[in-house]
Every structure is written in structure tokens, then in C-alpha cells.
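Build the 3D complex.
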Amino acid sequence: MRAIVAKMLVGGPPLVFLLVFFAAPSMIMVLSSFRFPGEFGGLAPLAAPEGGTGGDYGLTAEAYQFFFSDVIYVEIFLKSFGIAMATTLICLVMAYPLALLIARSEKRFRNLLVLLVVLPFASNFLIRIYAWMIILGPESGFSHFVNAILGVFGIAPVTLLFSPFAVLVGMVYVHLPFMVLPLYTNLEKHDPSLLDAAQDLGATTWQRFWRVTWPLSLPGIFSGSALVFIPVLGMFAVPDILGGTGDILIGNLIKDQFLGTRDWPFGSALSIMLTLAVLSVAGLSTWVARSAMRHGQ
Amino acid sequence: MSRANIWLWLVAASIYAFLYVPLAIVVMYSFNDSRLNAEWVGFTLHWYKALLNNQEMLTAARNSLVIALCASLSSTILGTMAGLAIHRYRWKFLPVLVFTPVAMPEILLGVSLLLFFLQVLNVTLGMVSIIIAHTTFCIGFVAIIVRARLQAMDDSIFEAARDLGASPWQTFRLVTLPLIVPAVVAGALMSFTLSIDDFIITFFTKGVGEPILPIQIYTMIKVAVTPEVNAISTLLMLLTLTMIIIAARLEARASSNRNNSRQAR
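Done.
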């Protein structure tokens, strides 16, 4: 009896708080996606309005039909997946050598080197995006430099800011530490005697990497990829600040439905679709990681 | 040093440069005597002075500070409880509720809370709605840190306390709490930083009346960029840097205490 009281005293408050402010809002969002938009934005009242079209409870799948009726929404989803995929790959290519170096450096330097990766991440998120607005701006030294090089090859000057390129750079910059940390945690645990054994058996540097280090690091790669891919998929601030008018992603679409056009049912439906996408990506990466582990053994 | 190692160092150095040069540029231009972030003209403190005379920015900073203090206080209490409950009682669905808000895209939490506040609770958005929203996602971070600390400890010390006749409350107050204090403090500092930096969730749960720091910065970036943004950015970086140094000091002291007590035994 006392055990149950203690359990409720410790676990009860966070449980109740999250049921009210996380579980309930999520349910409300599912429900909202099946409702009619209100006359002045928001949601229509639940009792069927104006003659009761669309069932007695005022519920409808209109928002989902609308999503599939226009190819542009599917295109934006695919584009978001493309950007998320590209960001993940670039982060992996950049993070892997860095994580490997940190994992193989002397023990007393490791914490410092990891801290140096995390430190810029502690500065404000908007500031990190804003920094690239300065660097990629039309009057910046970097822009002049790039255009000077392009000029040598006879290519017309380009604007770097407000382009898909700027969006990609911003996404990579903001999410890079999420890839470095899980990779480092994995690589740090590798037993160096495995590499010595491979060398004794005549493996070259490349073979040692490709046949020993890489397969062992797959779990780190998958968790890092999930940590980059998922937030990028829903990101609206980076395309909003660094992208042009054509560079909108799922996140921008959702933001506009809630704060711009105020079509809440459609915004909710888009959020549900994003949730499903995130869940399938998370499920897929867990499954791939598991089967990769099984093959590795 | 082998050739492969030299290449690795070169790549790593350029990635560190990629991480730091952009922030260095922001700091540098905050002292630049020109409206444009384009070329270096001369040193000035003008933008910091302008910031101090910007009443709206000062109010925004104060509001954000209040929000961060309240949100970190409530999420530290609730998050510590959640961490303890998850470690001790192995509930099935509590971890799902605690850790999902950390893992999912922030925009989803933002819009679902927007709907909930306006549609179900029918409240006006403002400081309170932001504090609640921040608490919701910070609980998970605190719980992760506290649980990691509990997992690293030997459960038998709690059993020993109980065997020696301590009540559950005494066990908690005299054994568990002193041991997890570094994790709780780290969690509090982390949720403070997360809250004061958060833009996305704040963006959806903010009201119209009170200015909030990240929203203020966003508006300046979107509408009229002046080096005042650089100045406030530099100050914010200093603030987070200080927090991190304090957290590292506390952690170092806690671990040296641990080692000392181990040596004394």
C-alpha cells in the first residue's frame, strides 16, 4: 500500500502534467484534422454547421483529400525528404573523420575535443542561422570570392543567399553535432586490438577501415542519422530565413496553415502526415540497425 | 605521424573552422562601425549602446529570463521525479510520454499546444503558455540526465539504507538526493539554456503583448538587419558560455568529491 503511494507521489505529477500538456494536445490535433475549417479561420464548431453537411458530428476527411488532390503538397513532402537525406549524408561525411580523430586521439584531449564540437551548438539557434546570412550575403567576401572563381570559368555571378544551397548549408551547420556525438560514442568503444590483429594478418589501412571500423560503427551511424534526419524533416526556420520563396518545406507549410491562412484542419492533417513520416523513419532506422547488427555478428 | 593521420587532422581542423568561423564573424561585426555586415570599417561600441537604449529589447530579455527561470524550475522538479520513477518503477508508458517530446520535430509540439491552448483551454497566449510549453519538452532532458546518473550508481546502497532502518523518505533525502544533486543541477542549467534559446515552440505559443527575446531576434533578422542583432547575439553567447563553465565546474567538483571520499575509505 505504502509502495503504491510512494510510486504515485514520485511518478504521478510528471505523468499527469504530460498527459494534459502532451498526450491530450496530440489527440486534439488528430481530432482537428478531421474537422471543418471555421468561417474566420480556426475550426468550425463541432455541431454540424449550416444544414449539417458532412455527417452529424461535423467530422470530415476533407483535409486529407485536399492534400492528395494537389500534386504540389506531395512534391513539398518529397522535397523535404530530399533535403533531409542530403543533410544527413553531408553531416555523415563531415562528422565521420572528426569523430574518428577524436576517438583515436589521446585520452586527456578527448573531452576537450568533444566540448569544442558541442560549444557552438550552445549558442542561440537563430544566431547560428543568422551567421550564414552574413557569410552568404551578396556583399560578403565569401560571395565575391565564389563569384570571382565562377567568373574565371565564364559562369555568370550567382546569389548564394535565399537559395536551396543556403538552406542546405544552414541545415548542416545547425545539425552537425547531432551526428558527431553518437558516432564518437560508438567509435570510442572500439577495441584497438582488433585493428592490430587485422594489421598482423596483412590488411592495408583502407581494408582495416572498411572491413573492421566501418561495420562496427553502423549503430552509431544509424542513431546519428535519425537524430539529424528527423528534426530536419520538420524544420521551418532555416528555409524561412535562408531560403527563397520557392524553398518551402513541410514545416513552412504547417506554419502557414496555423499562423498565416489559419486553415487549422489542413494544418493538423499536415502535422499528422509529418508525424507518420517521422515514425516510419524512426522505425525503419531501428529495423535497419538491428538487421545490420545481426549481419555483423 | 602517418600520412593518413595528417589527412585526418586537416579534415578535422577544417570542420572546426566551419563550426567556429561563422560565430566569430557575428561577434566581429558587432564591433564594426558600419550598418552593413559586409566589410570592416572600424571599432565601435555603438551597437551595444543602441541595444541598451532599445526598451523593447530590454523588456524582451527580462521576459525571456523570467520564462527560462520558471520553466527550468518546474521542469527540473518534474523531470527529476520522472527520472526517478522511470529508473525505480520501470513503468511502460511514462518513458514514452517523457522522451517523445525530446525526439520529435519541435514544430509538432508547438502546433499541438497552440491548438490545445486556444481550442480546449480557451486561454489567451502569453508568458504562461510559453512556460508550460517549455516545461513539456525540458522534462525529458532533465529525466535523461537524472536517469543516467541513477543507472551509473550501485542500487545496493539504497537497499543498505533500508536495511539500516531508513524510511523511504529518509532514504531519498539522505542517500538518493545528495547523490543525484550534480545531475539535477546539470539538468536545471540545461533546461534554462534550452528555454532561453528556444525559438520554434515559443513561436507557436507566444501571445501578442509581451516581446520575447528569440522572437525579437527573428523579427530583426527578417525585417531589418542591423548590427544590433550581432550585439545581442554576442551577449547571449557570453551568457550560455558562462552557464556551461559553471556546469562543468560543478560536475568536476562533484567527481573530485566522489574520488576523495573513495580514497578516504
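Chain B touches chain A through 79 residues (CB under 8 Å).
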